[in-house]
Amino acid sequence: MEHHLRRNLETNENIRPQALLQALSLIVNPSTSDSTLSFILKTLTLSLKNLDNNPNTNPFLSHHILHLFSLLSHHRPHLSHNLISTVREFSLIPSTSTRSLADALACLSISDINVNDESIFLSLVLRPCISVRHWLLFNVSKFDIRPSVLLTVLLGFTKDPYPYIRGAALDGLADLCKCIVVEDESLIHGCYLRAVELLFDSEDSVRCSAVRAVSACGQLIVASKQERSKRDRSDALFLQLCSMVRDMSVKVRIEVFSALGKIEIVSEYILLQTLSKKASSATKEMNFPGQYAEKIFRIPASSASFAFLHGLEDEFSEVRESACRALQTLAILSADFSHEVVNFLMDVLNDDSTAVRLQALDTMHHMAMVGHLKMQQAHLHMFLGILLDSHSLIRCTARKVLKLTELPSLAMFKMCVDGLIRDFELYPQDETEVFSALFVVGQNNRNFLVSLINEVSQMIEPSSGGKLGYDNARKASYLVLATSAPVSMKQQTCSIPPRIFSYAVTLLGRIARSLAEIVDQRTLLAYFSYCSRFTFVSASEFFKVEEHLEGCDVQLIQRCEAISNYHIRRKLQLKEAESSLLDFQVEQNKEINCVNIILQVVIDIWPSLKLGLIDEVTRTLRSLKAELRMISDNNHRGELVFALLYIDALERLGHLCSHLMFSKEFYCHECGKLQCSLGKLDRCLRDMRYKFIGLTKEDNVLILELIIANGILTLCKMEACVDETTLKKLHSVMSCIEHICGEGSTVSSSFVVEVQKSLSEIDTTSCPILDNPYLLLKSLEHFTPRKAVSSGNLKCMEAELHFQGNDFQNPLPFISGLLVGVSLDITLHNIPSDNRLWIKMSLEEKLTQFVFLDFHEIEGHNEVRKFTFVAPFYQTPRANCFSLKICIVLECMSDDDQLFRSCGGPNHEVAHLCEEKEVYFSAAVR
Q: Which stretches make up the Integrator complex subunit 4/Protein SIEL C-terminal Ig-like domain (predicted)?
């Protein structure tokens, strides 16, 4: 063994990664002798010292050797002294590469011996090597340095003669200002002034970093001020950034508008100045502390003039998009400013760039949500044109804006309805969303609705033959619009003829799909029946349609008949005349609303989890999961189970990210614990992906992004570097996301874009992940979990497993070498027949056997199946007693899943549908 290790671990041109993996397996094995470990340490030390003597050495070999050193330090503390001595000596070699220096510092920082990380960092960062300084400043968060010392160091390096060093120092200041508490305000003020000076640097990259640093330091100063001076300091910061909107660099202008959108306090007269070409009387004589030019150290309030007009009219679409995004937050600060913004956003809706048009619509949607979107008739005429856009996502966002827009006149109401109908006529595939928009617009404008319906009532009426045909898009749209009237009316009677609601039953399925977020089909039918009071033109026609309603059983018919009864109808009128259809459904949707609120809270605390605030976040997540478990609603069990799994997945992913990427402890995570954590996260994500029916495309993208994050963390393990299976799975999952996003229902996140860029740089034929495991890890900085919204339509595939008369004191008899049969009472919930189920039987985790469940031999339907099954176990051990762990698993049928190599069992990974049950056996007396 020692000879084999020496031959493979000695530094030469034929060194192989498999030798390092062999050393890794010996290090983590608790049975490895001290003599073998001493030999490994000695050989690795020799290889590390001789790295620079061979020009053909793999440049990333030192990274893997130092990783093994960190594992040795954890598993064998008595070797720490020798390790520290070797690593310290290696880190001080002048020719040591940047990556090796960082790895050496990380290895030193995880040891139990007192190592002054700060002093070593300072000694290395002052080296003349530019690449060393740049890498250390860029990764300064990995080291344990006091904030006051770090601020001083970064401030000093902003005067470095090399632009990349200045930029890295400024980025470090920006990151530090986002997460520290102000102790010395004068020091923060000095950083702010230095960043302002660098706004006039000759290098574009430095000016970009300076904008970020000015924004971060400025907001920190504003937060430290008393309420009286907060607005003045915030106005000064806003004007300082406005002075850069005309910068020659596109990237700088993008950063400026991004920074402007983060400011939370701005005076209204300054905001209005950004949309005006001339200085107002209120700003002509006003000056604020700042730097307007290289030699002018007071910034006039008039510098804000035309700032956002420059952005919205910029020749580059990225700048226009950034300006629209900034207006999205600033428009909330002032209603008058919002009214002015609308005039300019209407012009942006004609932009050549789809991304710019979409961002302008998103900005208007946010303005409408806070009640700051006021459209005039000329605006509405321009806005309705966007409903005919060829991009489905733009049309969808435009309809969302219309749902929240106030229409002050009947003429504008008619224009809005007509625009939605033209959308439906040109794009029939938009029917569901158009019907939903018509319904909400009718609710919000009940004063104009009756007038319009009276004008078009003849169009809604049946033909002379009495046929209720509503294939015409305009007729169907008017009918949907008419049915929204009682929801808005507070009177006991309605001006809309009740027979209109009887006509609406012919479109029940189509209307129910459009109102799925508000009401289910059963309740909608009962509601229409109540509103129409059964004044049908043809009762037989109605019940003919009713027979074809999907899922309409005897109980629903009885419910409709009961509602038609005079006395019950009178009771409903007294109780519900003052309620809307939304109120009609509130009780049924309160569980879903609770789940959605909890999921939003989980998304909001993700940044804290990523920063490493593990204890505080864990307590919050546990309380949220406890609240979810208190909701005992079987109708929405799928949503509850999915929400619990989603919270578990984010919690595990956050723990892994905080330990493996966002802190200096990359190497201190023990191999066994890392493997266990990744395995648990993988099982959780597998359950989310395969155990639910009714997942939307947005839900699938949400899960796939989590799988990508888990795969990237898996590739950071050394033993996974030479295994291409995980990398191939990443490519497959990325293809799935591209396919879903290509259909236009959702868009790729910045995280997916960054991962795609990293994957494009990887050549899978030459083991590149082993050479540089950080290629994909960097993209995790862009990961932000998507918001999960429960619609109430999820069903969870589950199983129940029972057997009687068996426990530890009453074992089943068996004869060694012969098979035994276990009689199981099985109940399956929501499992379609096209799935593959197996009974998994494990003998002390050493032997696993699978038995296939054939759905053709099982009676029942998809929702619930109950049956008894005798499962045979063939390999009984030569022992007096043993126990089997039994559960039911679902084979995950997917091309991107890793093959599950089991003899006679499933060909893919499996998801557990129930908890494991233990069956006890005792040898029979012969």
A: 807-922
